[in-house]
Amino acid sequence: MPDDIPTDGASPIPATPFGFSLSAPASWWEFDIRPEGREATIRGLVDERVREIPELAPYRPDLTTMLRSMAKDAHDSGALYMVSMAENFDGVPLSATVTVSVIGARNKQGVTLSTDPRAIAESLRTITPRREGDAWRKVTTVDVPEVGTAARTYGVEDVPVAQGDSRTLRMVLTQTYIPVPGTNAQVVLVSGASPVLDLAEAFHDIFDAVTSTFRFV
Q1: For residue 107, is pLDDT > 80?
Q2: Dihedrals φ, ψ of 63, to 5°?
Q3: What mean pLDDT comes out for the span 15-38?
Q4: Is 1 a member of any domain?
Q5: How far apart, in Å, do the first and last CA atoms of the chain sit?
Q6: Cβ proximity of 196 and 95 under 8 Å
Q7: Which residue range is the domain that position 151 belongs to?
Q8: Would you call 162 helix, strand, or coil by DSSP?
Q9: Are strands 92-104 and 136-144 parallel, antiparallel or unpaired?
Q10: Does residue 99 form part of some domain?
Q11: Per the domain annotation, does 192 fall within a domain?
């Protein structure tokens, strides 16, 4: 779990009466995921990082492509904010994202659901692997400092490649459901994901550390 999480990204949430802040490791990438601002900010960030670390120059196209894909996927999924890790170690890409979304507390039938973290946790399904290498999910509650109790799932899960696409991609996934103060209609979802399955335990710790910095502002 990282000891230093200095990069702070305070971001107002459109069409909601609140904003939030979230901090991530200084080496992670924070940028505009909207289509109109995506390309310019990614190019600028990659240029800046290559100036700081010239050894990354041969990997510039790979980093740009990876960040562009992460940003598009996050925006298409309805995320309002994303911070990501995109590194290339000896030709092996390592990536992870943490996104922040706001979801309504209603089911598909329009019935209002409880935003109490314990009730949310009770409604979430665990996944028990039948054999080694299967997908799995555990459900719990956690205390987010200065925010309070939140429901959480963590595991290795098969997630859709894209909305409306039947294909799936196995990911390390940590999802934390944080009730919005003063309303029973919205929940903030902080979701950490990485395709690097061999480092699942480490990424769960990292996602927990980043999520613990979430604050309403």
Answers
A1: no
A2: -65, -45
A3: 82
A4: no
A5: 25
A6: yes
A7: 7-216
A8: coil
A9: unpaired
A10: yes
A11: yes
**C-alpha to C-alpha distance for 146 and 157, rounded to whole angstroms:** 29
Residues with Cβ within 8 Å of residue 52, at least 6 apart in sequence: none
Number of domains in the chain: 1
Q: pTM of the predicted model, to two decimals?
A: 0.82
**Ranges 75-84, 112-121, 126-135, 156-165: which has the least confidence:** 156-165
CATH of the domain at 88: 3.40.1000
- The Cα 95–Cα 64 span in angstroms is 12
Structure-derived torsion over alpha carbons of residues 42, 10, 147, 142, reported in degrees to the nearest 10? 10
CA nearest neighbour of 175 among 161, 156, 162? 156
CA torsion 6→30→41→191, rounded to 10°? -170
Strand-pair category, 136-144 with 148-160: antiparallel
Q: What's residue 1's pLDDT?
A: 30
CA dihedral of 108, 97, 45, 73, whole degrees rounded to 10: -40
Question: DSSP 3-state assignment of 94?
Answer: strand
Q: Is residue 54 part of a domain?
A: yes
Is the CB of residue 188 less than 8 Å from the CB of residue 11? no
Please work out, in degrees rounded to the nearest 5, the angle formed at the alpha carbon of residue 71 by the alpha carbons of 212 and 211. Answer: 5
CB 9 within 8 A of CB 20: no
The sign one gets for the Cα dihedral 7, 182, 191, 43 is negative
User: In 10 A of CB 184, how many CB atoms?
Assistant: 13
